[in-house]
Amino acid sequence: MSGFRFFSKKKAAGNKLREARYAGTWYESDKLKLNEQLEEFIQSADGALSRRSAHAQFLEPPEINGLSADKDVLAIVSPHAGYMFSGQTAAYAFARARNKESKKPNIAKRVFLLGPSHYAGFEGAALSDATSFETPLGDLPVDKKTVEALLDFPLFRYMPEVHRKEHSLELQLPFIYKAFGPVEIVPVIIGQLEDEMEARLIAGALKRFLQDGDIIVVSSDFCHVGPRYQYQPFTKDIKENVYRLDREAYTYINALDLEGFFAFRDRTGATICGFYPLCILLSLLPENAASSVLQYATSQDSLAEDDDNSVSYMAIGIGVPQAAENRWQSDDMTGGENTALSPEEKKALLAVARQMIEAAASKTAKPKTAELKKVYPRLTQPRGVFVTLFKKNALAEEGRELRGCIGHIWPVRSLVDAVVENATGAAMRDYRFLPVTSDELGDLQIEISVLSPLKRIDSYDEIVIGRDGVVLYGSGSQAVFLPHVAEQFGWTLEQMLTQLSLKAGLGESAWKQGAKFDIFQAESFEEFGQEDSKENEGNASHN
After folding, report:
1. Do 331 and 286 meet the contact criterion of CB atoms below 8 Å apart?
2. Is 54 exposed, middle or buried (0-12, 13-18, 19+ CB in 10 A)?
3. Taking CA atoms, which of 137, 266, 270, 394 is between 20 and 30 Å from 278?
4. Residue 476 in contact with residue 127, Cβ under 8 Å?
5. CATH superfamily of the 21-321 domain
6. What are the tens digits of pLDDT across the range 472-494?
7. Where are the alpha helices (DSSP H) in 173-307?
8. Paired strand residues for 274
């Protein structure tokens, strides 16, 4: 497949402790003193939360704040400055996560911990090779099985040095231990993300492993303003203007508006250090999630801060009604309704694909898709999709030859946006071919293959040749074939898996040696009066 870079990865071996690097400087290192401090923080937060169900002063109107006591907490956002600055604010998030006021207290069984990188630049998600993370209160075990399984997916890799240096996760660990005890954690440090697609890709992998009893903790401070942070959008009324900026940021979090959140950052330059982990959270949460700002403060509230610089701290709780089923909606890489498209929807997708290719080849304005999304709302659902181009050639065996193919296996874009992106990609960015020119347009044929959600299988024996596309994962590498590939080449199942192993850069028998498999189906349709739909058949054997 095209569009993603797969990193080389190795499994970690042995027992390793990630030591508490910032104990004694950013927070108390003495066990008794730290426990006493956290107890005071959390008791104060519990008392305040018992007097109100939500922090209604942060947003207007206050009913936007929706995390009442009858909701189970799925996720919290907590700051990560030194405890003298943000410890009390962080305590609100963890106090609400325990949900003592509820008839059904929320005791986390496992914590997925996401935070930004302050000291290393990289793309994607950094995993730790440690088996436990140290805190002065006691060690937190790492769910190594889940960590190693995450290595199967794009953008995840081991980066132990990033974890050793980073404070954003460490500052949450004593609170996690105090609130939930020695629960398992899945610690992930998030680096740079190219766009919303990469946020959804990481979220899609994490969603596979989320289950009842899991809580996500996102470690993030909010806007950093002042000469110290090289961000000075205003020089007067700093506290009031910072408040307005943070309030706007929260509106996108509250609305689960990933695109709006990216646009807000691009428009304002807002320096939210946990921006990318927050983007992944927005991609993970179910549509019925509701949030509240539980506490808001800035470093200006501390006697240690000067008047020219400000860092904001926000404690946010996010949850769903306690009666909700399938709280995390954790089906494998869900991609919307897995139902056949109508003839009108197929025709619309083929038309916009051709318009995009023509615009790219002739260097004219790209067509707009807003109206198409209104007319066909199902096309706004995320789906995996490939766009394949053929060029008429009377000398070729089938009267045509391959001219390009690009696709997304994972549902990281709405269907129409994925078709738009991949149509342009197939025409202009398939490295095996020169870009399509305007004089070729009359001879091009377009095929679109819409994929079902990926499904993990227990054994390769479950794969059905001709019906299933296959993704193979092994030794940190991946490879994919669309459904019709084996039939086109006349391969048996074993031959197909051998070729898939070789495509992944592994030995030809790698599929027998602990490899894992996802399967999917494809609904394919073409232009020019050929079959309107060829269920479970693709024409991208080159992928």
Report:
1. no
2. buried
3. 137
4. no
5. LigB-like (3.40.830.10)
6. 998 878 889 989 889 989 999 99
7. 173-180, 196-207, 238-254, 258-268, 275-284
8. none
Q: pTM for this one?
A: 0.80
Distance CA 193, CA 201 (A): 10
Task: Tell me which amino acid residue 6 is.
Answer: F
Phi-psi region of 131 (alpha: psi -120 to 50; beta: other; left: phi over 0): alpha
Beta bridge partners of 448: 387, 525
Tokens of 377: 């709302």
**What does the alpha-carbon distance between residue 75 and residue 389 come to, in Å, rounded to a whole number?**
43
Residue 371: both structure tokens together:
């109206």
Query: In the predicted model, what is the mean pLDDT of the chain?
Result: 86
Which CATH code fits 454-520? 3.30.1490.150
Residues whose CB is less than 8 angstroms from the CB of residue 400 and which lie 6 or more positions away in sequence, other chains included: 390, 391, 392, 393, 445
Q: In terms of DSSP bridges, do strands 444-451 and 522-526 run parallel, antiparallel, or are they unpaired? A: antiparallel
Tokens of 251: 């509106």
CB-facing half-sphere around the CA of 311: CA atoms within 13 A:
20
Here the tokens at position 420 are 């738009």
Q: What type of residue is 500?
A: L
Reported as a single tens digit per residue, the pLDDT across 254-309 is 999 999 999 999 999 999 999 999 999 999 998 888 899 999 999 888 766 677 88
For the chain, the domains span 21-321, 331-452, 454-520
CA angle 394, 396, 402 (to 5 degrees): 110
| CA distance linking residue 74 with residue 146, whole number of Å | 18
- DSSP string covering 43-90, please? HHHHHHHHT-SS-TTSSSSGGG----TTEEEEEEEE--S-HHHHHHHH
Q: Give the architecture (CATH level 2) of 331-452.
A: 2-Layer Sandwich (3.30)
272: which strand partners? 223
